[in-house]
Amino acid sequence: xxxxxxxxxxxxxxxxxxxxxxxxxxxxxxxxxxxxxxxxxxxxxxxxxxxxxxxxxxxxxxxxxxxxxxxxxxxxxxxxxxxxxxxxxxxxxxxxxxxxxxxxxxxxxxxxxxxxxxxxxxxxxxxxxxxxxxxxxxxxxxxxxxxxxxxxxxxxxxxxxxxxxxxxxxxxxxxxxxxxxxxxxxxxxxxxxxxxxxxxxxxxxxxxx
Length: 209
Prior knowledge:
Elements: H1 2-48, H2 54-60, H3 65-71, H4 75-100, H5 103-132, H6 138-161, H7 170-183, H8 189-203
């Protein structure tokens, strides 16, 4: 009888173990759907701003409207997610660049990525402001903190290596890049910003006299 009971337990538990991989698959699919929606939404907000059709976003992302709304129940939620994603990529790049590049090369690569972030912010901010007015949600303030922390870490590392002057203020680099983007009305502002990165890096080198 004891042997029969043991066999019964095995029969009951074995299908549960086999079902685990199948249970994980929908979660992986859901994550891929979410990432695809965010990528499509970013491009859509570039073209159409606050008037972006969420149904069109779903179609371009090859998901049903119901799937989109399960992930992002409102237009504001989708905008916020796109914004957060861009900031998270930028913040995460700091450690990646620091681990694979020299200090000054890591700083330059991150500044180039920051230019892309500015472009995304210029795309998203007008659409977001059109929906929520002049109110700045907490997640926007938190994003600034993430960005500042990342660039300060990179500048500190470059100063410690002797590649950058000790009196360099990391935030000044951000202000310079944001400034060139806000002052330029043309579509070539990104090219100007890329040139500015090299100028800033050269000007931040210590005097070797």
